[in-house]
Amino acid sequence: MLDQVREKIRLKRYSLRTEQAYTDWIKRFILHYDQKHPGEMGAAEVEQFLTHLAVNGKVADSTQNQARCALSFLYKDVLETALPALDNVEQTKAPKPLPLVLQRDEVQAILSRLTGTHWLIASLLYGTGMRVMECLRLRVQDIDMKRKQILIRDAKGFKDRVTLLPVTLAQSLEAHLAKVRELHQRDLAAGHGAVAMPAALERKFPDAATEWIWQYVFPAPTLSTDSESGVLRRHHVQEQAIQRAVKQAVRDAGLTKDATPHTFRHSFATHLLEGGCDIRRVQELLGHADIATTMIYTRVMNQGGRGVKSPLDNL
Length: 315
Hints:
CATH class of the largest domain: Mainly Alpha
Order of helices and strands: HHHHHHHEEEHHEEHHHH
CATH superfamily of the largest domain: Intergrase catalytic core
Number of domains: 2
Number of helices: 13
């Protein structure tokens, strides 16, 4: 059954992370009921399981919602038995924290303690507002040096968008790509050099996987076996490596904020708004479907209590 789930997920072109998350929740759901087949269960068992996560597991609301989406997918798309409205689920009540934003000197302090590829990736995250995986999945052809822009393909919500390429990073990025091209040439000489291709392009254009324009901008330092095809190839840099590098840089800088690579995205949006950039333009650069999502950054702008002066300062 899990194979059927994976087949349906890949048919809908969901990400590998979604596939892993959905199969994990479905497996946990089955084990919760002593390996009873989902076809023998229904809305009552799903509601009980989701309530169990909230009451006993004390999971976050986003975690409970992910489990709900996984089980809804199982019944609707795999078992073809749509669940009724799950009205009796005990919802997780969790606070919605404001996004963590770094000051400009804090961003500089972190970047100054990173080197090489880690520095370039972190600089792009802050300079473009990309999500971490959007940056790591960039292909050579997605970088437009002449127009100073980056095309982000198949981002969250299966949407493409364009963001700016910081002028100050253009020279460093060109030097980096020159090194990547040399690495690609060595891989080709060793009988490798083919990367994973999106969707069905590998079947449609079998030779495209070895072409320079399809190579990752940030390739992994070593070859690895592809989990789906079993082919030995060079993947992109792992997200965990960037997370560890940024965490260490935050510690080395002596910052008390729990900053992560995603914090650069929050800082990008907030600093643009503080600089007078139109919020609609910021929404476009971030790829938000709803302006309300972008509006949250107006609540963390450096306005000293939303522009209000404390009466203590007037004494």
